[in-house]
Hints:
Helices cover 0% and strands 32% of the residues. The chain has strands at residues 40-44, 54-59, 66-75, 87-92, 98-101, 110-119, 128-133. It starts with 39 loop residues before the first strand and ends in a 16-residue tail after the last strand.
Amino acid sequence: MSKFRVLAGRSCCLLMLSLAAAGCAGETVAKDVAAPGAVTGLNVRAESSTDTSVALHWTNPTDADFTGVMIRRSTGATAPATATSGTLVRDLIDDVPYVVDVGHVTPGTQFSYALFAHDRANNYAAAAVVTFSTTKTPPTTTVPRTAKP
Length: 149
């Protein structure tokens, strides 16, 4: 134990920190291994989608440790099964519950999306999935023919 001497006429303030409370001094801090809840209500807004874009809307989980949503895409009827499969569309780190996918969306193609809610410790919730087909076709350009005299 340390001894302190306070001079006459002076005040003293002593600050003591407990390292045990911070996870030091041999104590362990619990590691976050629980994922936040899953995204719910995932849907495609057809009226906001086009032949080259897909508008996704959903409801974020309300978990305190929720930090964002990773959006993955695949071509066809099977959505990406994990947060590392398929093509990354975007990893949102805020609570905006919508995105419009405009990258590499082609007319007349079926796409499947998987949305994975996650926390700061990179724990991923089960995927919310949706499939959508872009059915519109791009306009065709016709070159006018000139009549032969």
